[in-house]
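job 3f2a | input accepted
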Amino acid sequence: MPSPKAKNNSGRSGSVPGVSSNGRYEFMSLNRSPPPHLLQRQGSDPTSARLRASESPTRRRGSGSSNASSSSATGGQQLPEEDCMRLNPSFVGIALSSLLAIDLWLSKRLGVCACEDSSWGSIRPLMKLVEISGHGIPWLAGALYCLYKSDSAAGQEVMLNLLMALVMDLVLVGVVKAVVRRRRPSHNRMDMFATFSVDRYSFPSGHATRAAMCARFLLAHLVLAAPLRVLVLLWAALVGFSRVLLGRHNVTDVAFGFGMGYCQYNLVEMLWVSPVGLQLLLGQTAWCAV
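job 3f2a | predicted structure (290 res):
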C-alpha cells in the first residue's frame, strides 16, 4: 500500500513545473522549448502567453539587433555637433531670414507703380523717365559727346575720367549680378529700357550705383550753385526710389547699390588720369589713327 507521502510527492511532481517523477528538480534551458504540459497550460491563457513572448530573451535579442542595425546605419556613433547645429538655426540665420522677409514684404508694398492698374499707376510714365535718366547708355553718350566737344585740357580730363568711371561701373555691377544671381521681384514687368543678359538679375541696382557715383563725381569736379547741388542729390535719390516704385528692385538692392556707387567714386579717384597721362593717351591714339 503506497504511503500518503508518496502520493503527495507524485501529485506535486505532476503539478509543479521543472520537477521530475523521482522528486528531483530539473532546470530548463532558456533556449529549449518547455515541456508539452507547460505549453498546454500557457496556451490556455493567451494574455499571459503574449506577455511572456514580449519578455522572452529572443524578443530582447531582436530588439537589441534592431538597435544595433539603427546605430550601424548612423555610423555606429552619434551625430556630429555640426549636424545638430544645422537642425537648430543660429541667431544670425534667423536674423537674416527675418530681414529678407521684411525686404520682400516692404518692396512689394512700395511697388505702387509696377503696372498701370496699381494704386499710383498714373505716375508710371514719369517714373520711367526718371529710370531712363539713370540708365548707362545716355550717360555714356553724353560723356563721349562732351569729351569730343571740350576744348580745354581740364574739361577733357574730367570727361575722360567720367567715361572711365561709367565703364568701370558697368563692369563691376555686371560681375556682382552674375555672381549673386538674385531674381527680380515677382511683380516686376520686364519692359525696361535697353536691357542685357545680366539685367534679369536685380542685385545690386545698377541705376542706384550709377546715380550715387555720378552725383559724387559732379559735386566734386563741377562748380555748381547750391540749388543745383541740391537738385543733383534729389535726382540721385529719386532714381533709386523709382527702382522700388516701378517694382524693378527690392529695397536692399537699391540700398546696396547706393553704398557700392559711393565706394566706386573712391576707386575712380585712385585711378584718376592726370593731364600728363591724358596727353600721352591722346598722342598714342592719334599716332594709331595715322
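job 3f2a | Residues 153-180 form the longest helix (28 residues).
job 3f2a | closed
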